[in-house]
Write a structure and sequence with these properties.
It is built from 8 helices and no strands. With about 220 residues, the chain is mostly helical.
Amino acid sequence: MESRCSSSADSRLTGRGVAGTTPISVRAESYDLGEKKCISDVRRTFCLFVTFDLLFVSLLWIIELNVNGGIPKQLDKEVLHYDYHASFFDIFLLAVFRFAVLILAYAVCRLRHWWAIAMTTAVSCAFLIVKVILSKLLSQGAFGYLLPIISFVLAWIETWLLDFKVLPQEAEEENRYRSLLDAAERAPLMYAGPLSDGQFYSPPESIADSDEDLDIKLDPDKVLV
């Protein structure tokens, strides 16, 4: 009976130890491998949107060049003979500036701070506001409204994505990863391993009791007395 109880307790503790330690370590290792393999999904989405910002503004600028007299003629007018009050070339350069800074900061260097996006958004907003006030873009048709507004909106969408999606989600994943590591480190201490049969035993009888019982058996007269 005693050996049966010890074997059942051994099986239960062994099951608890395996169930308690193995999944945690496997989850921590898989998380570690996934984190070291590439950047997070939300950061990759942010970088794709930054690339979309550059391509979309470039496409609008090319359409504007083609509509207003042809690409070669307008390139000569807006690039070679640049005029701050009438050219859209600086809005394209502003998109290139945002793309270069943000990709370098958040894709290459993988920063986890908002200073880079704050700088690009502040520069974009200040430049666009001043250009709309001082230039003659609003008198050049639909693109005079479209390019500044779209560039302004895209800069703020990038700021929202990084500040409310990328950084909080990556911080949450980092905390989850650390909690898994802590749990994996504590698990061997909590479940040191299966208990052996030698750990379940009955205390031996005392020597005094055994000698007294032996005397009673050898001398029955003492019992009568």
